[in-house]
Amino acid sequence: MKKIFTTLFAGLMISAQVMAVSVKDVCGQFNGDLNIGGDAYPSRSIYLLPGVVDSTVTFVLPDFTFGKGKLGNIVLPNIPMDANGMLHLENATLYLDSIHERASITVINGLQDEGVTYNSVISANDAMVLLSIEAPASLPEPILVLFMGEAVRANNYVLNNGGFEGGWVNDEPTGWHSFGTATGNMKDFVLDHTYQFIQSTDVRPGSKGANSAMLSSEMLLGVKANGNCTNGQINAGSTTADDASNNYNFSDPTNEGFNTPFQGHPDSLVFWAKYLPADRDAANEVNKARASVIITTNDRYQDPEGDKDYSSVVLAKAVVNYAATSDMGWQRISVPFEYTAAALENAPAYILSTFTTNMLPGGGSSYSSGTITKVSVLDTIYLDDVELVYNRELASFSRDNAELSFDKNIASVDANYCDSCAKYATEDNGISAQTFIAMDAAHKCIFVYVIADDYAQSGKYNLYRVDFTDSETEGLGPKEDETEGFESILSGEKRFKKVLFNGQFLIISNDAWYNAAGVRVR
Question: Of 140, 475, 493, 519, most Cβ neighbours within 10 A?
Answer without folding.
Answer: 519
